[in-house]
What does this fold into?
Amino acid sequence: GLNHTHFDAVVQLLARSLSELDVGENETKEVLAVVNSVRSDVLCGSETLFTRLGGESAVEAAVDKFYDKVLADDRIKSFFEGVDMGKQRKIQKSFLTFAFGGPKTYSGVGMRKAH
It folds into this structure.
C-alpha cells in the first residue's frame, strides 16, 4: 500500500503539474492543502487506496470524467491536440491503478520523461 513517501511523491508531482499548467501560486497552495487534508484517510487501514476508491471501475470513471473536462476546457485543451486520447486514457488508468496500490500493470515512462 501507499506510505508517506509515496504520498509525498504524488503531492510533489501534482505541484509540478499545476506549475507547468501556469496555475497560480495561491490556487496551487489551496489544491495541495486539500490533498494533504486527506493524507490520513489515504494512508490508513490495510486496504489500498485503489480498493477503497472502488477498484478498476472507479479509476476508469474518474479518468474518463477528468479527460472529458480537460478536453472541454479552453485553457488547457490545446495541450492535447493531436494526442491519441484512447491511448492517453489507457495509460493514465494504468498509472493511477498502479499509484493507488492496484494491480501493477503500468509499464510506461516516468512522469518527468512523459511531460
